[in-house]
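Friendly challenge for the regulars: who can give me the structure tokens for this chain first? No prize, just bragging rights.
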Amino acid sequence: MKADRNSMLLYLVTDRAWAAGTTVARQTEEALRGGATFLQYREKTLRGDAFLAEALELKALARRYNVPFVINDDAEAALQIDADGVHVGQCDMSAAAARRLVGRDKIVGVSVQTAEQAAIAEREGADYLGVGAVFTTPTKPDAETVGLDTLKSICASVSIPVVAIGGINESNILTLKGSGADGAAVISAVFAATDIRAAAARLLTLSKEVARHGEQA
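First reply, four minutes later:
Bragging rights claimed.
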């Protein structure tokens, strides 16, 4: 699997906080049924065999729905389960280091907050960028927001796909129009919904409008 602009449309990031009474896998499958186009496994509580077992379960779902699957932060785990790749933040490792670890055939995504960081990540071999937080987000309440102007600047400065992340939901996603973003990464906007599948479907429709507008800008 490769990370292209179409796969950025509805980029799903897992979060166990919303899985009370169910499982991350069941929630994720509902989102994939609704049209999620990319899956990132972000897990801060599980370790060892439990982490790998759930990662493998999600990898199987991603294969079934034909979407790319990456693991957040952990390049070694991505290799161990043969995920499609890894996503790293500025404090985790450089794009160059991630590329060396996973090789040329795996996906490397990088979180950036400035055009300078974006240029470095692209130069070092990143396949796509996550830019945020574009809005304040309950998932990372201490995350610094980058703003729409910075998002637009980053999108204009690189040739690889860019996904916006951070506090994006149905009420604000259309403000990304004209930014150049190829899609939106979501967590609570999908996982906290009563009907996950329907929420994903609505967000996919809105994200397509954002991406089309970006192409015309």
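The helical segments are 24-34, 48-64, 75-80, 95-102, 115-123, 147-157, 188-191, 196-216. The longest helix spans residues 196-216. Your move, everyone else.
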